Amino acid sequence: MVRIKSKEKIRAIEKSGGIIAEIFQGLQNQIRPSTTTLKLERWIGDFIRKKGARSAFKGYRGYPAEACISVNEEVVHGIPSTRELREGDIVSIDVGVQLDGFYADAAITFPVGKISAEKERLIEVTRKALYEGMKQVRIGNRVGDVSSAIQRYVEHHGYSVVRTLFGHGVGEALHEDPVVPNFGRVGQGEKLQEGMVLAIEPMVNQGEAEVKVLPNKWTVITADGSLSAHFEHSVALVDGGLKVLTNWEGADG
Ligand code: MF3
Ligand code: CO
After folding, report:
1. Is the CB of 103 inside a 6 Å radius of any atom of ligand 1?
2. Residue pLDDT, tens place only, 193-215
3. Interval 179-186 mean pLDDT
4. Whose CA is nearest to atom 2 of ligand 1?
5. What is the pTM of this model?
6. Looking at the 3D structure of the chain, how many domains does it have?
7. Domain with 97 in it: what CATH number?
8. Atom 6 in ligand 1: which residue has the minimum CA distance?
9. Residue 105 Cβ contacting ligand 1 at under 6 Å
10. Is 208 in contact with 225 (CB distance < 8 Å)?
């Protein structure tokens, strides 16, 4: 069941989202060759605590860390470790924050130092695919309009969308209805309604769509070992239009 939120609740979710936006701004200076994903995790955890908030991920179905940090062929749910980042890597950082019972969720793929043109392109197409999906968030549209806009944009650029992981409703829990796939058909699925809050999150593989899960039971990697990128915003449908609640950049894409 979709939980429609009042404007007041949406403002509360936006507070959590604002903390995530600040984290992503601060992370720009933390991400550099030879730092470890564990150092990034600690920086994020400290930031969340300083704000009086909590990680929405730690303990969720037993997830062991405060952020998900996924490098290169890792798609999502990378567990922070002593692994060092290297010049030319790409690193996807996914952060969920809970403040006063309200949840927001967002992700960005960052370059580590100077990266290849091929990696730049994957990152840029994934970021723009998110904005293509967000543009469909309006009264009269359905979830399938968001999904198909993402899929079309990604496939047009020769990449594939992961089909076993989805975006989702968010706000009073980390995961709420409806499910927001990154593939689908125009005019299908749940109607978008005033007061809906969605986490839209394309996961885009350079190669094939198939993924597998590492023996740690969490980390999802591409089955063919190709690179993967991930961008996510939590957004609301307010006054008939889109409101970005995790504003890690100007919301124009
Ligand atoms: N943004 C991811 C999601 O929506 C993060 C979940 S990771 C977990 O599923 F650690 F919380 F499980
Ligand atoms: Co999410």
Report:
1. no
2. 999 999 999 999 999 999 999 99
3. 98
4. 94
5. 0.97
6. 1
7. 3.90.230.10
8. 57
9. yes
10. no
The minimum-distance atom of ligand 1 relative to the CA of 77 is 7
Is there a cis peptide before residue 215, judged by omega within 30 degrees of 0? no
pLDDT (tens digit per residue) in 91-109: 999 999 999 999 999 999 9
* 85 CB neighbour count, 10 Å cutoff: 23
Q: Is the CB of 63 under 6 A from ligand 1?
A: yes
CA of 57 to the centre of ligand 1 (A): 6
Range of the domain at 178: 7-244
Is 37 a domain residue? Answer: yes
Contact 147, 181 (CB under 8 A): yes
What pLDDT does residue 249 have? 83
User: Does 250 map to a domain?
Assistant: no
C-alpha distance from residue 204 to each of 49, 53, 92, 126, 190 (Å): 31, 30, 11, 6, 23
Measuring from atom 10 of ligand 1, which residue has the nearest CA? 57
